[in-house]
Please model this.
Amino acid sequence: MRISARELLGQLLDAESFVSWDRPPLAVAASDQYHEDLRKATVAAGTDEAVLTGAGLLRGRRVAVIACEFGFLAGSIGVAAAERIVAAVERATELGLPLVASPTSGGTRMQEGTVAFVQMVKIAGAVAEHKAAGYPYVVYLRNPTMGGVFASWGSLGHITFAEPGALIGFLGPRVYKALYDADFPEGVQTAENLYRSGVIDGVVPVSVFRRIAHRALSVFSGVTIADTAVPQHVSGVTGKHVVVREDSVAPRDSDSAATGLRVPPESVGEDVRAENSAWRSVLISRRSDRPGIRDLLRHVTQRVPLSGTGQGETDRTVVLALARFRGRPCVVFGHDRSGQQDENTMGPAALREARRSMALAEELRLPLVLVIDTVGAALSKEAEERGLAPEIARCIADLVTLETPTVSVLLGQGTGGGALALLPADRVLAATHAWLAPLPPEGASAIVYRDTGHAPQLAAAQRIGAQELRADGIVDRIVPEMPDAADEPHDFAHRMVTAIAEELTALAATDPARLRRSRGTRYRRLGLPAAPR
Model:
């Protein structure tokens, strides 16, 4: 039995203290079938969206609360749910309240495509601003917490605990099986294993988390209080079980991150031309001879290659350098398509190197250029246990709040959290055949149809192509391929470098603090209806 959002609030907060902050969900564009799915989800879950927000008392202390409801379309986060979350985070910040968040989710909502995926940026940005204002952010992960939710606001807590037996990870087991025709190693994506690996702080039932949260908030407040005896939250780990002083709970079975998600047939493939265009771009972006970040760097001057995190880690799937684009100095970081082979894709070390590039740019007061060209982040036991999802979350939060000009370039493939980690920027450029999606189309097909054969339809339905991304406000400028960058690598690289230099020149005239505010506003409004004139 999963803990519902209302049950969580009832166990976490003082009796009858919860006051809802929720307004009716934001209306989003949807097919008739998706509207029907939403109606049925409302009846089944007893909530009007996948998240409830509000304020209440936690052992007498007023806190803001965000609680996901898995019964509503697998707790998936779309534009309306994201807007509700961000509004609650902003209200908590305005009121100076500690914030307790309890996600349980399969990830972003497949029915809403890439726009829903990018909502994780604005949620992470709002949480980062809340923390920067000096207010606590405490997280309790419930069963299951997967995908973009875990790799954004689920991993940004000052402290993070989880429900015993919870499935927690970056990619759901079913999607991994569909993509690689192999089972993900057992026992890796569990709360207990992530605790043993140092990714989260502990594994406890809600009753114990309530005590821990109270004690942590008392410490965070800096107010001296009389010491009270609170049981040690974890006394040991035995096999697959975490032994909790008051309760010992064995891991329970849980569904995959895909549970409950379905895209109606009429929303995937009615426009055959759009389907063919999107899927064609996916195939073109996968050409082995397509120019990558190293080709761009051959067209810049005064290159200074750098390597690693500076803390004993390196990852050959990424490139870090200092360079000048048409005379404009900057820090460059991005995915190296030549270093990505089979399952050798960017891991936690690559993301920590990305964060090094961000810190370097801010300290040197140089612009940061980020190049996205990835088949996705690493999907392995080692990546999960070394904190892949939390590093993605930190990259997103750092980028949204960075006080230096930023330019992001969608050069080719833009799959999942590994791409999203480098996306939030003042200006986003895309090659004609670049794309951005929460999963490769084959993975989205595995979630929706339990096969990979509908990938072309999903590519169109999720609006992943450069033209659609520009129409949806995710991309600012498309740099043309004539007709395919792989057939004209030198000329294409020249055009892209020139475009980057032009954007750097335009951004140079703006105060970095103003850019940060504008960047936050940009992603805050993403996916929302345009204001009437």
Observations:
- The longest strand covers residues 406-414.
